[in-house]
Amino acid sequence: MFTDLPLDELRTYRPPLPEPPGFDAFWERTLTEARAHDLAARFTALDTGLALLRTYDVTFAGFGGHPIRGWFLIPRAAAGPLPCVVQYLGYGGGRLRPHDWLLWPAAGYATLVMDARGQSGPDRPGDTPDPAGYRNPGVPGRLTQGLLAPDDYYYRRLFTDAVRAVETARGHDEVDEERIVVAGHSQGGALALAMTGLVPGLAGALIDAPFLTHIRRAVEITDAGPYGELGRYFAGARDHVDTALDTLDHFDGLNFAVRATAPALFATALRDDVVPPSTGFAAYHHYAGEKELKVWRFNAHETGGTDQRAAELGFVRGLFG
What we know:
By secondary structure, the chain is α/β, with parallel strands linked by helices. It has helices spanning 7-10, 23-35, 103-106, 154-170, 187-198, 215-221, 227-236, 241-249, 253-257, 277-286, 305-320; strands at residues 42-46, 53-61, 67-75, 82-87, 110-114, 175-185, 204-208, 264-269, 291-296. It has a domain at 80-91 and 120-320: Rossmann fold, CATH 3.40.50.
């Protein structure tokens, strides 16, 4: 069933921004601290049996100088420097295997896939631990880790890793540093959206069902995971709800959207109970760069699936020719 406001209302839905005091200063300080560590990007060639690609195991220094893993794939036949798609991952999974990321190299672009620290699963393996602890008790999952202070919050580390992934791609000799596109679905969409506000000079962004956007509304209208983790936490941590929401405001996609300059393709689905469509529409309406929106009326969190990928291919082709 449709899970949110009627489509006519969604087309004009533009809620107030949840911007906390000192938002820009918080992120400037966070990224300055991260850049105090040498990026130390390493690309180790692998023989994966993918004869038409060159494949590399990537490591670079993310938040706190912690080593972050990834994959880098580049078409053997293409002459560089190439455009590059930096790919971010959905919630609860890792970087998988190189053969899981063939779309963009097959289209002729370089691809850097960033692993998500501390996330993995039996069918979505990852290789990056999260060595930083967190100070408050939380419910299972990542969404409540360090939730009582912006400096401690898990997503401060993950968003910083995502910025450093773009810097890693830009530093590769066969990548055109002015033609970087960030991409992701759900949690990956949250990261891509955040990058449009944190990283200047991006060529484009593919923002599919962005999580961590218009968070205060999302936690009130869905119990589905991962937002359900917040509801379960708030049910027990009754005295900490306002403090936690203030922390979350530092990571809300709406605050990055208004700072964006890159052209973006958004997607949302009207039956999505994981990332409610009003939150995606809110990000789209606040987005300050050039933008397009694909609305999938009878789909859920998968949005347009393979049809969305086709739309993304067309969008990126339009950026680069």
